[in-house]
Specification:
single chain, alpha/beta, Rossmann fold, five-stranded parallel beta sheet, 6 helices, 5 strands
Length: 149
């Protein structure tokens, strides 16, 4: 059975970050699917994707968003899977998105990584670390990656 991560972005303009993350996940042998679904423009679709992620075989969700960056929190509200939030630099250098991703209410955690491209890479590595706990092939790939740094 494939190891799968769902990458969610709020807008087509965020695809460059999803691509960076998707490519690095591939190096760890992790299959990833990218879905565009805005927490504000498509709330029902976003909730459905998040709530059905586990039954669709995903083990972790990476949610990327800028500005208000509601997407990671909305996703976390609709799943018990680990959610990794990547704040994107849409305005004020992404600080607004970073604050949004990190200010989650108790009981609805979102793991936050760096803003922008470094965050897209770190989200892939963090997802691999989570998945390496139960997938030895991912653990081996992650070990090789770390040694190559």
């Amino acid at each position: 059975m494939a190891v799968k991560v769902l990458i969610m972005i709020g807008s087509k303009s965020d695809e460059e970050y999803a691509t960076i993350c998707h490519e690095l996940l591939g190096k760890f042998g992790i299959e990833a699917s990218v879905e565009i679904s805005s927490a504000h423009r498509h709330p029902e679709r976003t909730a459905k994707l998040a709530s059905e992620a586990e039954s669709n075989g995903f083990e972790t969700v990476i949610a990327m968003a800028g500005m208000a960056a509601a997407l990671p929190g909305v996703v976390a509200a609709h799943t018990n899977l680990p959610v990794i939030g990547v704040p994107l630099p849409a305005t004020v250098g992404g600080l607004d998105a970073l604050m949004s991703v990190t200010q989650m209410p108790p009981g609805i955690p979102v793991a936050a990584v760096a803003i922008g491209k470094p965050g897209a890479k770190n989200a892939a590595v963090l997802a691999a670390r989570i998945l390496a706990l139960s997938h030895s092939d991912v653990k081996d790939a992650l070990t090789s990656y770390r040694q190559s740094l």
